[in-house]
Amino acid sequence: MFGAEYAATGQFTALGTARGVAGMAFLVVLFFVVTRELRGGERAGIDEEMNLLLASPREIVVAKLLMHTGTAVRFVGTVLAAGSISFALGAGSPVVALGLLAGSALLIVSAVAVAFPVAVGTQYSFKRFESVRKRRRLLGGTLTLGFATMFVMARRAVLTFSSFPLGWYADLGFILVTDAVSLTHSFVVVAILPLALAFNLTVVSRIGELSWLTEPGGDGLGTETRSSDGIEPKAVEMVVSQATAAGITTTWRRVYRNPNVLMYSLMFIPILGVAILPVLNTAPSVGLSMVAITGAAIVGLGPTLNPIGNEGAFIQVPLMTPQGCRHLLAGLICAVALPGVLLVSLATVIAGILLDVSVSVVAGSVTIGVILVIVSSVSSAAVGILFPQYEGTSIVRNRGMQAPQTEAVMIYLLAIFGLGLPTVYGLQMVPYISTATGISQPLTTLSVLVVTALAAAIVSVGSWRYGLGKLQALEID
User: Fold this and answer.
1) Residue-range domain boundaries for the chain
2) For the chain, which terminus, N or C, has the lower number of CB atoms within 10 Å?
3) Exposure string (b/e) for 253-264, b if CB count within 10 Å is 16 or more?
4) What is the pLDDT of residues 248-272, one digit of tens each?
5) Which is nearest to 395 in space by CA: 314, 293, 459, 465?
6) Are the CB atoms for 307 and 328 separated by under 8 Å?
């Protein structure tokens, strides 16, 4: 489209958009390089320690830069190349493609050269400083949430990055297209690459050597004790039985050690949040109910969606005890439902205060949220048992968890919203139902909530029986 406009008018008016896209592409490369370098965890440190016997730290840095560049070219580079060629074809000028491809190549290589020191420095800080290492999961979750939000709000992100220096690579790419580009911007982005490469070959190679030869303390190589995460079952035993409390704390420990199981929850927060925002502005009472439903749905996107796969080889233990499956399933559900009820209720109340809706609407939305949190916890466990994720399951991974199957996520969301949305519609119809039947509005609202609770009870009991039956029917290999 922009290429055809340029061919027809001889003017390029989308330089700001191009800068925003370039800024997003730079951050995408940075995100993937950092996460891929850190994802190796303890295994990466062992590999690099062995590599240091065969090559110098500088040679390892060069090899890693080339590896990450190849990966970035394969994923991000193909998209940028396709856009560059499309613009050049629309403009009818093959020469334009050369400038765009050169700018894209420089963007990728520079992004890798900037991202790698960030990854190595972060990796070293995780191993060297215990206070930082304890908060690495918070850092990873925040980074993932921000990355997902950037894509969900892509249009606004493009507008934001259009004024950031990260977008200056577009000036270099379109230097043959328009005089509106800044030569200063082009010079700066060209100068960044040799500086970043020199920094990698000198400082980063030394930091990398220290990082690869540093033994992580505490939880770095699985040396942490069972109670090192501070999660103990004593407080939970005041609410549930001892066996269920053990299941709850075990689930919390595994989520703490491997928060990747919350990936879908983090991804759907911005996705569903963007969908709710227009409703909050136009119909606050409906939007508040949607906040409660969405919060409940997000709660069930965690560890309950893959009970069998998360247990791994240790699923044999509850199968060999009389009440083992019941305690396993109850502990898993309660581990999600207990914090879920608190978080969804708190989020709904805060949203109600900000929207300035009546107390009765807030109370009704909180009630819906609590009901659906319980349903989501039980039904997601049943769906997860129906669609288990076994990939990567082994006896050495039982301390963590893994993300569920995509099919389980989709079916679960359809079930929860299929139960929650009719409730929202029923609450909006309360005035009409009250007028038609002559029943007061508070009593009509209570009737809608009672019907929702009965439907939720039926779904919860059915999901519990199905999940428990499937667990008890498993055969030990």
Assistant:
1) 2-213, 236-472
2) C
3) bbbbbbbbbbbb
4) 887 887 777 766 667 667 777 776 7
5) 314
6) yes
Token readout for 389 is: 């994720």
CA distance 7 to 235: 70
470, 386 Cβ separation under 8 angstroms = yes
Query: Looking at residues 400-412, what average pLDDT do you find?
Result: 74
Length of the chain equals 477
Please tell me the distance from the alpha carbon of residue 252 to that of residue 188, in angstroms, as a whole number: 48
Residue 108 token pair: 């990728």
Could you please report the per-residue DSSP string of 342-409?
A: HHHHHHHHHHHHHHT--HHHHHHHHHHHHHHHHHHHHHHHHHHHHS---TT--GGGTTS-----HHHH
| Chain centre distance of CA 30 | 16
* pTM for this prediction: 0.58
pLDDT digits (tens, 9 = 90+) for 268-291: 777 677 777 777 777 887 888 888
284 backbone dihedrals φ, ψ, rounded to 5°: -55, -40
pLDDT, position 363? 87
Of 29, 7, 12, nearest to 171 (Cα)?
12
Q: What is the DSSP string of 228-255?
A: TT---STTGGGTS-HHHHHHHHHHHHHH
The Cβ of residue 227 has, within 10 Å, a number of other Cβ atoms equal to 10
- Return the pLDDT at 112: 94
| Ordered DSSP codes for 402-434 | ----HHHHHHHHHHHHHHHHHHHHHHHTHHHHH
> In what helix (H) or strand (E) does residue 270 lie, and over which residues does it extend?
helix 263-282
Q: Is 453 exposed, middle or buried (0-12, 13-18, 19+ CB in 10 A)?
A: middle
